[in-house]
């Protein structure tokens, strides 16, 4: 049974591995002294939402209300809140709690805290299961609430709270944010198209790597990529061997990474941010001969996420979205499973949630 809290909430939830979402009444905790309550206006749909509602990772606690990239307007603040006030625009990303005292937390890397609590589908310290942004209201500790830049659109900006920080953080951490750096981006989906925008804003040369040429024109003419590489073309892959300083691999489907390692220079880096449900094959000789690195990166801490939002606002970076009504969400999930979206679905929660019941 769900924990009963005093604040009534309404959203859409999946109740079994079919992943079908339908109206759901639940509750949020009362606004504590350091809490922020806000009305949810827009929520992006992440590929991990699809994985969670279908229990692809084997850890889904049903019923589950997805959504970890959502924005809205503050309606109530606790007595000790200093960061935002009623009426401010705010956002919540992938996490809502951490221990605040471990090495990772003290280094502003709450996303790697062993006690980090995800925005939905996790157990909160109060014993309840967290619910996400496919809902009308949210209550979160102010530490995990992001201030929304005035120049950043709410709808197209919402996916940055996951897709944005997931790609911005490794670009920064691994030194791929320098002008003249050659960055490869594998996959031109929700994460990949944002990675291209950030890398270009940093001044990098960007090559998009995809399985077919179907997105070449869009990658170069619309997103500003410098080159396009078809990974299934051996001649193109061989011609590009050893030319990239780093690659951001955004693909969540099972795929070969050895051809990608061949593309990076000696001492180059392949950073995986997608989450395939099966292990990848890796031959260490390919790493040894060029002192190459295969690494991973998962979202970012709160300080860096705020930095990312401010950078995006300054450089006019937002996701390319398809805005949908709440009652279209199941169709959107079916389309997402087929990669039929350019490039991120965003739910118009504020205008369509109540009408969808």
TrEMBL record:
Q: Which UniProt keywords apply?
A: Metal-binding, NADP, Oxidoreductase, Zinc
Under PROSITE patterns, the record lists: ADH_ZINC
| Cited InterPro entries | ADH-like_C, ADH-like_N, ADH_Zn_CS, CAD-like, ER, GroES-like_sf, NAD(P)-bd_dom_sf
Q: Which CDD domains match?
A: CAD1
Instruction: Name any cofactors this protein relies on.
Output: Zn(2+)
Has keyword NADP?
yes
What Pfam families does the record point to? ADH_N, ADH_zinc_N
- Keyword Oxidoreductase present in the record's keywords: the answer is yes
Q: Name one GO molecular function term.
A: oxidoreductase activity, acting on the CH-OH group of donors, NAD or NADP as acceptor
UniProt xrefs under Gene3D superfamilies? Medium-chain alcohol dehydrogenases, catalytic domain, NAD(P)-binding Rossmann-like Domain
Boundaries of each Enoyl reductase (ER) domain copy? Answer: 19-347
Q: Subunit composition?
A: Homodimer.
Q: Which family does it belong to?
A: Belongs to the zinc-containing alcohol dehydrogenase family.
Question: This chain belongs to which protein, by name?
Answer: OLC1v1011619C1
Source organism of the structure = Oldenlandia corymbosa var. corymbosa
